[in-house]
């Protein structure tokens, strides 16, 4: 009996060592991928070989730990950056589909992360898919991130570009999230973006009709 107990303890310790090793190796790949993606944030680097060197790190971390939400989100960021750098429409669409897939997997693992849902509706918008899945992602991002600035910025900026494709529920959520951006500088950024894309009239009507209060007075001019 004593030998059986020792054997079980040994097996348990061995199992823990294997798990720790897998986590450690996966995390090394994750750190490498994250650092390289930060290097590729600018337009210049997005079109360089930096992104190509990220793939091995992305593949490595998912090979060792395929269901970690952080790793899945990092993989999604990689595929989105790849889509941005890709001039071939077919390949760009393929990259976005890959990004959507890993973001969906991340949301399935950890539903309560609002920024993952924001990633999903952002990619859906890039694909031009304003369907029930888009609306569900908007709903979930708002449910778990009603005060999250990242969610607010993503949704409001997408609404300004694509409000004609938004249903009434999505617009209502976007208006709710706009109230997270009412300080002077954040609201000014949203206003200036509406000017840039020719949607000032829509944006300012939205602000006035919903009595959104802000110290930035661009819409009152």
Automatic annotation (TrEMBL):
Full protein name: Uncharacterized protein
Organism in which the protein naturally occurs: Alteromonas naphthalenivorans
């Amino acid at each position: 009996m004593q030998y059986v107990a020792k054997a079980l303890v040994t097996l348990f310790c061995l199992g823990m060592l294997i798990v720790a090793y897998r986590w450690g190796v996966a995390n090394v790949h994750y750190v490498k991928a994250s650092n390289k993606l930060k290097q590729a944030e600018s337009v210049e680097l997005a079109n360089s070989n930096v992104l190509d060197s990220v793939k091995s790190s992305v593949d490595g971390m998912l090979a060792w730990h395929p269901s970690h939400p952080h790793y899945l989100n990092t993989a999604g960021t990689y595929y989105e950056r790849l889509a941005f750098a890709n001039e071939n429409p077919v390949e760009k669409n393929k990259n976005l589909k890959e990004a959507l897939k890993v973001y969906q997997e991340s949301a399935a693992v950890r539903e309560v992360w609002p920024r993952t849902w924001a990633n999903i509706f952002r990619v859906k918008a890039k694909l031009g898919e304003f369907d029930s899945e888009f609306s569900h992602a908007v709903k979930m991002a708002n449910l778990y991130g009603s005060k999250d600035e990242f969610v607010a910025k993503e949704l409001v900026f997408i609404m300004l570009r694509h409000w004609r494709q938004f249903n009434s529920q999505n617009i209502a959520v976007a208006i709710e999230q706009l109230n997270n951006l009412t300080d002077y500088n954040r609201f000014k950024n949203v206003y200036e973006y509406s000017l840039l894309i020719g949607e000032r009239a829509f944006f300012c009507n939205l602000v006035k009709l919903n009595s959104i209060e802000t110290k930035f007075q661009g819409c009152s001019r």
